[in-house]
Amino acid sequence: MMFDDSRTANARRSTAPDRSDADDSDDRDGATRATAASTSGADEPTIDSAEASSSDLLAGRTRRRFLGTAAAGLTAGLAGCGSALSSGSGSDGSAVDVVLAGAPSGLQKYQCLVEQDGDAPITEVEPVLVGGEEFQVVNGGVKSASVAVRAADLSESVGSFEETRTLFTLTFGADVDPDALSLNVSTATNDDGESIPTDRLQITVGGGSG
């Protein structure tokens, strides 16, 4: 019995797997795996990126905490200074000036205390010759019957002068007898560091020289 070789060959070709289709399937599977790996890598942050984000967040929180604390401290300081200088009541009373009768060699610094025999409250302390941060209420002040102040001409804005000039002004909430007031000068020096005679610092009631 003889076989038809042509039919046998055709049958073998029809039953053999199509290698081209298999190759295409392998290529598609490889591309899918590559795409998935690429997507997974893009979605997941690297360790360096996560650490940098955490460091930036911590630094931001620390800076906000520091600025908040600094702002609170500044507000408290200004409030304390304001209460020592003015009550804001605007009430009528006695105006008292502490003046310096001439400073031929300028003024470097001074510290003095104003007291009274009565109890009229001080409603305002106003620096004149030396002011701003160079003037400070040391004790007493607004709502007290006495006040101790000090000032230093750090900016060297005060030169020599012969006339009488006001160092600072006090306002009392009631009339004050001039004879009931006293001035105690603990420090007064000129630009050379020498003492200024304490009798050059005086109290005037009802206005003085500016």
Structural account:
With 210 residues, the protein is α+β, with helices and mostly antiparallel strands. It is 36% helix and 29% strand. The chain has three helices and eight strands; from the N terminus they run αααββββββββ.
Summarize the structure.
With 210 residues, the chain is an alpha+beta fold. It has helices spanning 5-15, 19-43, 47-85, and strands at residues 95-103, 109-116, 122-127, 135-140, 147-152, 161-172, 181-189, 201-205.
Helix and strand arrangement:
Elements: H1 5-15, H2 19-43, H3 47-85, E1 95-103, E2 109-116, E3 122-127, E4 135-140, E5 147-152, E6 161-172, E7 181-189, E8 201-205
Antiparallel strand pairs: 1-6, 1-8, 2-5, 2-7, 3-6, 4-5
Which structural traits does this protein have?
4-stranded antiparallel beta sheet; globular; single chain; 210 residues; alpha+beta; 3 helices
